């Protein structure tokens, strides 16, 4: 049975002082993943011997993050950076520089291995090791994003158990909602592939991280269309960028232009993950729900 659908609500019914987006037509949450070498190593440790692949990812800390921080400084905007534990261990100075600029630091696993490929015990170890790596830098993360957004049905419970208060991994909405877990509430800030730069820019032949290099203008057109649609319907514009991708020169200029467009609209509020979490928790109209785990008939859908 398909999950019950909530009727579409006019934007005007959601705006106001008590709304999670205040009087804004939409909220823009700029997020950056400091993945570094983790996607390459997650494909197999043999790739540590591939100098091209490793240096491709090391652009992240060497040039990508500083460039993106400078662009954010131009606008005085605070963003949310999702950092795998290994990145925190390899580049502690980069991660602390992000925090010192006033940006949010959030949990993004330890190794960037998708949780759906791990056992429950492995997922827990991975989660806790990521927490420990951030804690070693004096960072207490409040948000979580599963690598590749590949959350399991246990991920929300795991996040709440470890004191995290929001997640951005699930895609069943374009407005925030609150997940009711057995351990307590977890604010969900839904992302989507259409607002991810990976699908536009990721190219690495070995290991295969993507075979597409789209022009920045195409990404800008797509993201602008999503922005205006979310302004019409009162949603969350959550841009997911990777510093090893959007930190490249032409793409960084494209990101600057995207921020300019958001500012030019005049009715979009910028928030970090923790700011948006607080706004959601203060809004009594935000939907609360339990995750609806699907029951599948094995006779119909074999486990190939």
Automatic annotation (TrEMBL):
One of its GO terms (biological process) is carbohydrate metabolic process. Gene3D superfamilies: Glycoside hydrolase/deacetylase. PROSITE patterns: NODB (PS51677). One of its GO terms (molecular function) is hydrolase activity, acting on carbon-nitrogen (but not peptide) bonds. Pfam families: Polysacc_deac_1. SUPFAM superfamilies: Glycoside hydrolase/deacetylase (SSF88713). It comes from the Bacteria. Residues 50-271 form the NodB homology domain. PANTHER family: POLYSACCHARIDE DEACETYLASE FAMILY PROTEIN (AFU_ORTHOLOGUE AFUA_6G05030). This is Polysaccharide deacetylase.
